[in-house]
Amino acid sequence: MKNDDDAPLPDTPYLLPFQVELIEKVELALEEIKASGKSQGILLLGETGTGKTTASDEIARRYPSRIDGVQLVTSVVRIALSTGADVLGTMKKAMEQLRKPVTEPRIKIRELEPQLYKAIRAHMVLIFILEEFHNILLLGETRMRGAAGDFLKNLWNMHPDESSQAWVTHGATEGRYQLLIIVSGTPDLIKVFPPNSELGSRYGTRVDAPKMRLFPPESLRLFRRIFALHCKRFGIRHLVNVNDSDLVTRCFLVTDGHLRDLEHLVQRTASYVRRAGDGAAIFAAFARAARDVTTKTILGKNPFDLTPVELADVVKRIKHGYEINAKGGRSNG
Question: How far does CA 34 lie from the centroid of its chain?
Answer without folding.
Answer: 26
